[in-house]
Amino acid sequence: MAGAMAAAAGGDSDGESEELVLTPAQLIHSLEQAWLNEKFAPELLESKPEIIECVVEQLDHMEANLKRAKKGDLKVSVHHMEIERIRFVLSSYLRCRLVKIEKFFPHILEKEKSRAEGEPSILSPEEFAFAKEYMANTETYLKNVALKHMPPNLQKVSLLKSVPKPNLDSFVFLRVLERQENILVEPETDEQREYTIDLEEGSQHLIRYRTVAPLVASGAVQLI
Amino acid sequence: MEPAEVEFLAEKELVTIVPNFSLDRIHLIGGDLGPFNPGLPVEVPVWLAINLKQRQKCRLIPPEWMDVGKLEEIRDQERKEDTFTPMPSPYYMELTKLLLNYASDNIPRADEIRTLVKDTWDTRMAKLRLSADSFVRQQEAHAKLDNLTLMEINSTGTFLTQALDHMYKLRTNLQPGEGSHSQEF
To answer: Where in the cell is it found (chain B) (predicted)?
Structure first.
């Protein structure tokens, strides 16, 4: 857990950008990693508010600078192109998270409820507000359209039971960033036995998400 | 992931261009580029190289491996071996496509290169299908996929993982016995 969140220290206090050890280039790189992980992971991953915040800050800063620059300059157009590229990754990442929230909202909110004090939230404040609102709207809608016309004993529906859970057993592709030893692979069929594998740095694997979920969270492997 | 998104990632790779304009260093968020001087080769990301090329502001120097002799060797090696051989670039397919589409006048024997890369790609995809088939048949829980590129993984990845998920569901929920579920694959 600690490795990936080296940047997290500056999250809550002010003057984040000074406290971060990341250079802007590394920042963009970690945004891209978060983007790919989020794209391929079956469940919603921990939110990265400090990365988002810094990227937005960088983009705003650059755009403010560009407003002052003269138009038609080749340099300006290159900067604009880069901004567009970063913005694309950023919005694709955020959109991907929203899609997952819409898909799994009861489970995500449940997890959020049972979260211990001090444990980092997987939702950013904005995403949390969105999830709650989405939940409330869905419930109201179901009630108005169908449930209130039902016999009284059938008027309750549990969203937690009726919305599918993320499938943690799905297979994912990954690339190893930090060497890992003794990863336990569970057997597929009863005849097979479980066995352990070592993940060499730079190697690529196809494996169940459940097996490597902690490694994705810690940043030791990258989903591809 | 969409092929366009893989291509997006490939566009971050560096290529060498020879600009015909001069410009100071550019301080991009992702790092500094330049300075640009007419006639002096400089490394830039592919997205910028293509843009400059389209505006006729540079000449592109193809990557070292984008050469008929080298690619023939790679193709033959790929055909000879049963496993996947290492590729000269993790984005060989995307780069070939991008550079040949936008800068074919700067790449000698472009058509031959296109065919060679396509041949290599086809051989690799055939291998990939074969190994996916045996992976499913043997009901493995883990596979090592070194030397596969992102584009290759993504062109069969979604289909394969979805198929595996379905099979897993069938196996764990309902059928204890061995079915014939791998036949349609």
So the answer is: Nucleus
Q: Kindly give, in sequence order, each residue whose CB lies less than 8 Å from that of residue B168, ignoring residues fewer than 6 positions away.
A: A169, A188
| Secondary structure class of A217 (helix, strand, coil) | helix
Tokens linked to B106:
């700067």
Global ipTM: 0.85
pLDDT by residue (tens digit) across B71-110? 999 999 999 998 899 999 999 999 999 999 999 999 999 9
Nearest by CB to B23, from A74, A171, A206: name it: A74
- Tell whether B170 is within 8 A of chain A (Cβ): no
Could you tell me if A223 and A40 are in contact, meaning their C-beta atoms sit under 8 angstroms apart? yes
- Which residues, other chains included, contact B56 with Cβ-Cβ below 8 Å and sequence gap of 6+? none
Q: Is the pLDDT of residue A59 over 50?
A: yes
Q: Is the dihedral of CA A146, A148, A154, A157 positive or negative?
A: positive
* Chain B contact for A171 (CB, 8 A cutoff): yes
Under a CB-based contact definition with an 8 Å cutoff, are residues A168 and A207 in contact? Answer: no
What is this structure's pTM?
Answer: 0.85
* Encoded tokens for B134: 């045996």
Residue type, B177: G
Q: Where are the alpha helices (DSSP H) in chain A?
A: 16-19, 24-40, 49-68, 74-113, 125-145, 159-162, 209-218
Distances (CA, A) of B162 to A170, A176, B182: 8, 22, 13
CB-based contact (8 Å) between B159 and chain A?
Answer: no
CB atoms within 10 A of CB A130: 17
Give the H/E segment covering residue B173: helix B150-173
- The torsion angle over the Cα atoms of residues A165, B167, B6 and B148, rounded to 10 degrees, is 130
- Where helices occur in A114-182 by DSSP H, the ranges are 125-145, 159-162
Best residue in B1, B22, B27, B28 for a mutation probing chain A (most A CBs within 10 Å): B28
Alpha carbon distance A60, A68 (integer Å): 13
Across B126-140, average pLDDT: 88
What token pair was written down for B159?
A: 């289909």
Interface test with B, best of A204, A210, A223 (most B CBs within 10 A): A204
| H or E stretch at B28 | strand B26-28
Q: Are A123 and A109 in contact (CB under 8 A)?
A: no
Which stretch of DSSP H or E encloses residue B18?
A: strand B14-19
